[in-house]
Amino acid sequence: MLNIIILAAGSGKRMQSKIPKVLHTFAGRPMLEYVIESAKNLNPDSITIVLGHEADLVKSYISNDNLNIVLQESQLGTAHAVMCAMPMISSFDNEDSNTLILYGDVPLVSVDTLRSLLDSCCEGMSILTSVSDNPDGYGRIIRDKTGNIVKIVEHKEANNEQIAIKEVNVGIIAIQTTKLKQWIGMIFNNNEQMEYYLTDLVKIAVTNSVIVNSVSPKKSWEVFGINDHIQQSNIERVYQYEQAKNYMSKGLTISDPSRFDVRGSLRFGSDVFIDVGCVFEGLVELGDDVYVGPYSILRDVTIEKNVRIEAYSHISNSTIENNVSIGPFAKLCKGSHIKSNSKIGNFVEIKNTNFGNKSKANHLAYIGDSNVGSNVNIGAGVITCNYDGANKFQTIIEDNAFIGSGSQLIAPIKVGQSATIGAGTTLTDDAPAGKLTIARARQKTIVNWKRPKKN
Fold first, then answer.
1. What positions carry a catalytic annotation?
2. Over 80: is that where the pLDDT of 4 sits?
3. Has 7 been labeled as part of a binding site?
4. Beta strand pairing status for 149-153 and 140-143?
5. Are residues 190 and 249 in the same domain?
6. Is residue 451, in this structure, part of any structural domain at all?
7. Which stretches of sequence are listed as region Pyrophosphorylase (predicted)?
8. What's the pLDDT band for 339 if we cut at 50, 70, 90?
9. How far apart are CA 268 and CA 442, in angstroms?
10. Do 276 and 259 touch, CB atoms closer than 8 A?
11. How many of the other CB atoms lie within 10 Å of CB of 46?
């Protein structure tokens, strides 16, 4: 059997934030979610999360599915947090039962590394260690002449010789559940910080002639923790760079993997190109031969083949069919469906609209709550006035219509097939098919008018 305890009670003072540390995000998700996901991938019999600071807020962000939640009312150290979790740990008397202790602020440890750690605790206990060129703040691993671990010394309590050691304790422990039950009550807070240190388990194991094994991750960044916003930023870049390398190995062309962000899932076909500074959120699907220009943001989007997204375009909750050109500086909002061979140009916003085959809005237009047919031309400055301050109404533009520049279509309204709307028209009634419709005030010149001047 396998029990997992996740320690997530700390406030994270160095984050200088009212948000609990484990809810701070990278790649669009709270760091605690990554730890829970890794824990679930190990198929444990139980997962217990120890909460403390803003516990109710943290609980509201995590799924309670098969999770035990316990409260550490006073943060008295890592061993004390484990003591709080012990009533939830099952099978104390089963020699085959192990307990894995994880940390909510160490989110990138791979499942393979955790499995190796569990495999190595067959003799009683195993800890995750890492060799660091900058070990400040970490407990040092003390070994005897034969290489066996004899104790862990906290950084604040280490002498000069111990400070020079570069092998450090990451904090993650795998231990036989029966031994954890026996030893957790033998930990005392007779130290400078007056805290109950979980690392004292090592000293207890050695005293009981139990060998303490160790495992190190294949990649050093797996054990990076997040204690401040600098470390949060570092982990973000590590994670995104690893994502970029994985995608590139599968055929995606990324202009600069150090300026690439996926905050969800990205699926792609062949010969897809991603320029610098792009952000992908939610589920984004890109078909063959798609080009995404620099600094574009795509969120929950399906894009078919041979689509070109020019720079600084923002697209969310939309579908784009084959051979479409978007942008630059275009915005497609929820419910937009852009059909094949059409064009949405610069500074055009589309919302909740079906935009037909071979239709185009080349620049400076707002098309909302509309149904646009095929081969429609929408001129610069056209607005579908879909909102009366309380309710939304639909604009229908049928096939082959031409909407002149600077026109306003006051919904609900219908423009018939092959109709032409003269530039500058404010359309308040349906425009008949095949006809030219113009609605402008009569032009006049005010002879004696003078431009006002500043006093």
1. 363
2. yes
3. yes
4. antiparallel
5. no
6. no
7. 1-229
8. very high
9. 54
10. yes
11. 18
